[in-house]
Design a protein that fits this description.
mainly alpha; two-stranded antiparallel ribbon; 79% helix; 745 residues; two-stranded antiparallel sheet; globular
Length: 745
Amino acid sequence: MDLLNTYLIYLIPVFGLIGIVFMGVKAAWVTKQDAGDGEMTKLSGYIADGAMAFLRAEWKILGYFVVVAGLLLAYSGTTVKTSSPVIAISFIVGAFLSAFAGYLGMRIATKANVRTTQAARTSLAQALKVSFTGGTVMGLGVAGLAIIGLGSLFIVFYTMYVRSQGLNVNGEGMAKALDVLAGFSLGAESIALFARVGGGIYTKAADVGADLVGKVEAGIPEDDVRNPATIADNVGDNVGDVAGMGADLFGSYVATMLATMVLGREIVSNDNFGGIAPVLLPMVIAGLGLVFSIVGAAFVRIKKETDSVQNALNIGNWMSIILTAIATYFVVQWLLPADSFHMIRDEVTGGGLKDGSIVFTKNGVFGAIAVGLVVGTLMSMITEYYTAMGKRPVLSIIRQSSTGHATNIIGGLSVGMESTVAPILVLASGIYGSYHFAGLYGVSIAAAGMMATTAMQLSIDAFGPIADNAGGIAEMSRLPEEVRHRTDNLDAVGNTTAATGKGFAIASAALTSLALFAAFVGVAGIEHIDIYKADVLAGLFVGGMIPFIFSSLCISAVGRAAMAMVEEVRRQFREIPGIMEYTGKPEYEKCVAISTKASIREMVAPGLIALITPIIIGFAFGPEVLGGLLAGVTVSGVLMGIFQSNAGGAWDNAKKSFEKGVMINGEMFYKKSEPHKASVTGDTVGDPFKDTSGPSMNILIKLMSIVSLVIAPHLHKDVKTVAPVQKAMQPRSMITHVIKVDKRA
């Protein structure tokens, strides 16, 4: 046991390696599956080539950004003693691994899609096995790379700045190690934002163009091979919902662990791990979550055509959550000391801690983790209710489609707005409960608990676009109706899992941003943020506005690109003879080029807003005003993210309900009916909501918080009370004495 205590820090990257090994095994299994006939593989090749063309164009632009940002960070690391030019290396590694994680998922997704189509020719069970296994490659790859990257860099920086110099683990050396490590998270989140926004613009420009001209004007089915935009639409599913989502959750995963580690540095822990147990705990929880996600994935299976795919996914998800919760309890008991403890930012008085200080125990820490797991589960359940077929919200949109396009839009907007109520109440309760158990560290460790099973959550999420592509290939290849019926079954569940995944990401972002916010306050040397001050209140309002202008830029970008797509599809229908008779071949590559150019051009402005705004506000008005800005962004961004993602998901499944047939006022309606056309309009409006601006909200609020945390040492404000870093350098005996005094009280 003593040996394990000594080398626990080196075990963390091993968890990541386990994930990568299993990822390789599953990727090899998917690749060995039958890819179908020549027509199917040709269509799959078009999709794969288009996706890679987009990534190459995106990486070229992002390469310039990474170099410039890295140089600026290297210079900034020389200006304060709690940072280092090494932060630039940390930033570049984070950016690379974030992009690489998305690439790995996209590569296997473009192989799994056609193999899922072929599997659907035999059974629903086999189609689910292939598509979900493809999704697990994404989930395990993202989680594995994140743990390897963060864990390995922490070992290096901890050795460089703390252990090799014999410094106090709560002191300036650890503060420097974690500030440099924050560069890793900054790189990951920066790439995530550009990948998410760029991929979202790409996929929705193609989707909207394909729907408006193909389904509404030409009256041909979705994913029909005659539609010139259909290949671009399927490419978009991969670059947006696979590569973009992979980079997104990679960044979320890393940011959650980093925020908890920064706050963990402020806890004096008389443990068996050199005092760094509160810092190691979030990484150990993430590693356990990865292992139990592998176990949970083994339970995702069905046997009969009538079995519920959604239930199979839920069983695997629940299994991973329950096993992680049980294991986490024992890990917390083992890692953390028996004594109660508190954060050193609580002011030390002559007789103990100041009034209102949070003193907590290891059982309190586990209580906070349990709160995080419950919050994540409830958020997924609530999102599923508001976006799933057959539930009241989607049925209400279906009924309102019978009276036209306008009432469909009204119905979807009202569902999206209503869907913010329950999640916000759950989040508020989660924040209150986790803080009650373990203070600010409790809020952060709750987010770490929620994100522990990210590998499983992302596996379920990535399964959706694979199934969607499989359905598209089945339609374009004109396979038998039973094949499309099976892929539609998977696709409908995929729409719901995509919505729940976005709800999960937004909930974790809210808790993570609060933890990053608390870390920023400590590093910047401010005790509180007073909204009675005019400048702070102004910052609060400006922060509340940012998610709206960010959403506007994203949605308008989709609109402009979709207009160009619509005009191109109309031109091809008009000028290329024989398209409708299957004798003329559409020019798919021109539609792919439109989406690629538009997304690369339009992703820049939203990304710069998130990166530059905190820097301008922080240096121009100071840390307290920047704190007000972050508070406004977080509250407004969470609400906007939930509203847009759920409204778009509900509109989408309302449209898909007509494909199976729905009853409205005693009459059945199907495809090509007037209510169906109204539902297509609603789905078109919801597309940029749920796949571009909505899911980008969680990255926006986390990225702005991380940028603020990175620049916080440069904004450090001298105040009358002792700053957290100075307190950390007080003799441990003094702080330990304070804890003992408080225990006697």
